[in-house]
Amino acid sequence: MLCPLIVIFFVQSIEWTRSQKTLSLQTGASVTVPCHYDLKYIQHKKYWCYDASSAYNYCRILAYANTTQEKVTVSDNPAQSLFTVSMRDLQKENSGAYWCAVEIGGRYEPDVIEQLYLRVDSDPAVSVLESRVSGAEGSSVSVQCLYSAAYKKEVKKWCRSIDWTCYTVGRTNTSQNSAVQISDGGEGSFMVLMTGLKQTDAGWYWCSAGYLQVPVHLIISGSATRRWITAVTLAVLVGLTLLAGVAVWTCRKRHKATERNQSKSKERTADREHCDAEMDLAYSSVIFSGSKKQLGRSDPEKQQKSEDPVTYSTLTDVKQNLE
Questions:
Q1: What are the φ/ψ torsions at residue 124 (nearest 5 degrees)?
Q2: Pseudo-torsion of CA 225, 229, 235, 236, nearest 10°?
Q3: What does each C-alpha distance from 178 to 181, 186, 190, 222, 274 come to in angstroms?
Q4: Opening angle at CA 244, ends 238 and 248, nearest 5
Q5: Strand pairing of 82-87 and 31-36?
Q6: For labelling alongside 179, which of 2, 107, 230, 268 has CA 20 to 30 A away?
């Protein structure tokens, strides 16, 4: 009896982009994880996925880009071709496998993913004093990375997240980025010193001891000279704006004063014309008086009323008389 030949095809559903990272995190703390992707995936959906048994095919999508679900926030930054995942109030049960994923959408084309493992402990083996540091262009910045006694002899590294360029103990000078110096005193911490900072140094880094990493975000601000020039320029613009405002206010004030003066001038002209009109008139008086003899012929009552002289006034146009 012939046994049927069974052929099994295994379809790979995962595309690995980088080697797995293990993040050492503290209970109750928060963490922000950078997830880089190729520029050709800018328009694609991004998501953060989790599975306790490290099986991507069964992972649960916790949040898509630009959304917040419970304690997870995913923010896409196309300008830098990365999205970040922020997790708050970490607990031990949050330990496990996670994936930064870009949804491709094709039936036979797998999503682009990167696996990370989060290990949450009350006393993490590797940590940093500050997960967010900043420095001015041209200056320097330092990062202190802490490690437990079990990692004293492990290799200490400072790695750039975007291309996974790593620096070990000693000093490294680069042409494009700042000089990096790592010193390990063997007392539970090593120091990373970056000098001559450039704008190209900005981004995400990993403070690493052995196979454990902690993310650090480096922000580069403008140089002191550039900030001074910006401040002076801003002060000049503010001064010019104030001068322009004063000039406009003065102009309006003068315009209003001119209008008032013109109005007063018109009023004075009208008053003069009115006075001139009054001066052109002359008054003359005519007095009529009668003797008692003449008045005696009239009625006694009328005589009594006519004893006082009577004055009549007439108005004469002086100009006509002069003419």
A1: -65, 150
A2: 150
A3: 10, 25, 19, 15, 90
A4: 145
A5: antiparallel
A6: 230
